[in-house]
Design brief:
Layout: E1 2-7, E2 11-13, E3 18-26, E4 33-39, E5 46-52, E6 58-60, E7 68-73, E8 78-83, E9 92-99, E10 109-110, E11 114-119
Parallel strand pairs: 2-11
Antiparallel strand pairs: 1-3, 3-8, 4-5, 4-9, 5-6, 7-8, 9-10, 9-11
Length: about 120
C-alpha cells in the first residue's frame, strides 16, 4: 500500500519559517495531486494547499496565501510546504495527502502528520 510520511514539523517562534516535506513509499501509484491539510486541537481538519501533478497548478487556503508555498518533485512523488511568517494560529498537526484516482477524487492516501507549533 502507499504510505506518506511527513517531516519537518517543530516548535518555532511567530514570524519564523518552516519547510515541511512529504515522501511516498510503498507501491507505485498514479499521482494526480498532493496536498497539505492541518488540524488544530478542538478544530476540524482544514485544507491548506494543494498541487496538481499534471501541470503544477497550486491552490491555497485564504489564510495562508502569500505566506505558504507548495511545491512538488514530480520525479519522486514528493511534496513540500514552505511556511513563512508563521503565526500562532498556524499551530496544528499538518497532514500530507495524495490523490490516486483523479484530480477530482477525494484524497485517498494520508500521512500520519507532523506537529507544527508556533509560539508567540
Amino acid at each position: 500500500q502507499v504510505q506518506l510520511v511527513e517531516s519537518g514539523g517543530r516548535l518555532v517562534q511567530a514570524g519564523g519559517s518552516l519547510r515541511l516535506s512529504c515522501s511516498a513509499s510503498g507501491r507505485t501509484f498514479t499521482n494526480y495531486g498532493m496536498g497539505w491539510f492541518r488540524q488544530a486541537p478542538g478544530k476540524e481538519r482544514e485544507f491548506v494547499a494543494g498541487i496538481r501533478w499534471s501541470d503544477g497548478g497550486t491552490y491555497y487556503a485564504d489564510s495562508v496565501k502569500g505566506r505558504f508555498t507548495i511545491s512538488r518533485d514530480n520525479a519522486k512523488n514528493t511534496v513540500s510546504l514552505q511556511m513563512n511568517s508563521l503565526k500562532p494560529g498556524d499551530t496544528a498537526v499538518y497532514y500530507c495527502a495524495a490523490k490516486g484516482v483523479s484530480w477530482y477524487s477525494e484524497y485517498g492516501y494520508w500521512g500520519q502528520g507532523t506537529q507544527v507549533t508556533v509560539s508567540s
